[in-house]
Write a structure and sequence with these properties.
Radius of gyration: 22 Å
Number of helices: 4
Shape: globular
Order of helices and strands: HEEEEEHEHEHEEEEEE
Helix content: 25-40%
Structural class: alpha+beta
Largest sheet: 10 strands, antiparallel
Strand content: 35-45%
Number of domains: 2
Number of strands: 13
């Protein structure tokens, strides 16, 4: 029986194929070591919920029922998109209450929202939402709406290009769509910010240290 001995040319092509095949995995591993993660939004991560709640430092919200889209990374959930009506209540420390009242007409303020885009650390997601009532409910229309919101909001916080950077634990970004005040953008962490987009109003000065996380 004759045996075929691979030529130097064939060996060269095989080595190139192995090398090129290893690049995507190596790039992904390097991105994760640097703290950059791909985010997956899929129909399999659409959930029905009941009585969804969150209590932050100065911002709290609840939604009685609706659909929820979760954006997952290999480290866990870092994006939460609420597709259901709810109520948000926002307060502020004494130092900025005058600006808060000028922006929203009163302090504190409680208003209805129609959608919420939220970024948080996977650990906090598990601690806060892991035990709340959710049931998988694949829904193509809900996924399309969630992707639309994601595309609009993802590049505004904690990202490196199309990849996610995980916010520190106890740091949350929350963007609410409301009928009364339009879009409200809010971040709570070591620093805190709160903006009303239209008409634009900025409640906190830059790098204002959160009194509840000093």
């Amino acid at each position: 029986m004759a045996f075929l001995v691979p030529s130097r040319h064939h060996l060269y092509l095989a080595l190139i194929a192995i090398f090129l095949g290893a690049i995507p995995l190596s790039a992904q591993e390097e991105a994760q070591k640097a703290g950059f993660y791909d985010v997956s939004l899929s129909a399999g991560e659409i959930y029905k919920y009941s009585s969804l709640k969150f209590v932050g430092d100065y911002t709290s919200w609840e939604s009685p029922s609706g659909l929820l889209a979760l954006g997952k990374t290999e480290a866990g959930v870092t994006v939460l998109i609420v597709l259901g009506p709810g109520t948000v209540t926002i307060q502020a420390p004494e130092q900025v209450r005058e600006k808060f009242t000028a922006a929203f007409g009163a302090h504190p303020v409680s208003t209805a929202f129609t959608t919420l885009y939220m970024r948080l650390h996977p650990q906090e997601f598990q601690e806060v939402f892991g035990k709340q009532s959710m049931t998988k409910s694949p829904d193509d229309a809900a996924l399309a709406k969630a992707k639309e919101i994601y595309d609009q909001r993802f590049l505004t916080s904690y990202h490196a290009g199309p990849r996610a950077i995980l916010p520190p634990v106890k740091t949350r970004v929350m963007d609410f769509d409301t009928a009364q005040f339009g879009q409200i953008t809010n971040e709570e962490g070591y620093w805190i910010s709160l903006n009303r987009i239209t008409p634009f109003a900025k409640v906190y000065p830059s790098r204002f240290v959160n009194p509840k996380q000093k």
